[in-house]
Design goal:
mainly alpha; two-stranded antiparallel sheet; elongated
Amino acid sequence: MSDRYYEMKISTLLNGADKLEADLEYLCALVEQPDKEFRIADAVVYARAVTAVTQQLDFIIEDLSRNELSEDEECVKLTHEEVISLTSYTENSEDALKLLEKICGISLRSN
């Protein structure tokens, strides 16, 4: 890791992972335990949402969890590239979830 890095609080990272995991569980439950009220109108849009959330969660759990901690052990050190990647994963998830809401009427904020 280079000398230049950003820091993110471990609690923020863990809270984000917890939220993504809950979102993923909810999305998977729509298929595993179908509800007549929440039909999946477009399987491709649904799959894109599941994939985007999964990729973001995997990046946090698999990649960022290996990073060094700050001296006080309250923060994870992130490179510039990791910040860019995390932002990209976040934007992809948000875009996919907005499309899921628009096309399928399924909103994680409302449900």
